[in-house]
Amino acid sequence: MSLAHLRDALTAGDNETLIRYVRLHVGDGDEVAGRREIDKAWVQALTVLLDLPDVDRAFVLETLRTRDHATLAHLFFSLHFHLVQQSGEWIHDGDL
Amino acid sequence: MSAIGSMITKSDVVPLAPMRRPLADSRLTFVSTAGVQPIGTLPFDVVHPVGDYTFRRVPSSATPADLEIHQLKYPTDGAHRDLNVIFPIERLQELARENVVGGLTQDFFSFIGYNMDPDLLERTLAEDLARAVADEQADLALLAPA
Q1: Between residues 58 and 97 of chain B, which touch chain A (CB distance below 8 Å)?
Q2: Where do the structural domains in chain B lie, given as residue ranges?
Q3: Is the ipTM of this complex over 0.95?
Q4: Contacts of A28 in chain B (CB under 8 A)
Q5: Which of chain B's residues have a Cβ under 8 Å away from the Cβ of A80?
Q6: How far is the C-alpha of B134 from the C-alpha of B131, rounded, in Å?
Q7: Is A81 helix (H, G, I), strand (E, B) or coil?
Q8: Chain B closest CA to A53's CA: distance in Å?
Q9: Whole-structure pTM over 0.95, yes or no?
């Protein structure tokens, strides 16, 4: 799926194509696996918060307040891969 | 022509460059998409949805212990046991020692193959790499996809 194709989808408001691309990206080319990976990251994030551990909210708020949109979007993808790695179930062939 | 959504739209033919001198007199460089990089350099951006358009220099004198792999798209079990299966740096060092090739460039070059914008790839990474290879006065380049 080319970048031009994604830009066309964005222009057309075709969110299904965009999210399909995300699933393919995080699922190593397998859309079904990608959907599971997205779920896995959310489950992992929820899991570590269930017991209400201390969190550095000042860091989070400062980061959200001071960093640009692109860096935060990249952080979102980075956190996804970090969380799925933390879950212990790693489907990818290589290494972060 | 290309299928809808395909990245491939070019039909250009890249002409082969003839060798200008015998192999034993030629300085060899190595360009790899394996995501191999010196330990301590900024890891390749393997999570970016549109890819990474940078390359790393890998000293041709490096040992596998000096290097690490950052990429998500090929199995690395074998490469972790012997890096030469994907990035044959010790084999190329042997070829230079045995005078099969005239020598190695000071640095080799590495990037990752996950780049979703072929135009950007051509304008930036490919140009930057070509310039770096020329600056190293390479007579020939071994290109190896991962």
Answers
A1: 69-76
A2: 23-144
A3: no
A4: 72-73
A5: 47
A6: 5
A7: helix
A8: 27
A9: no
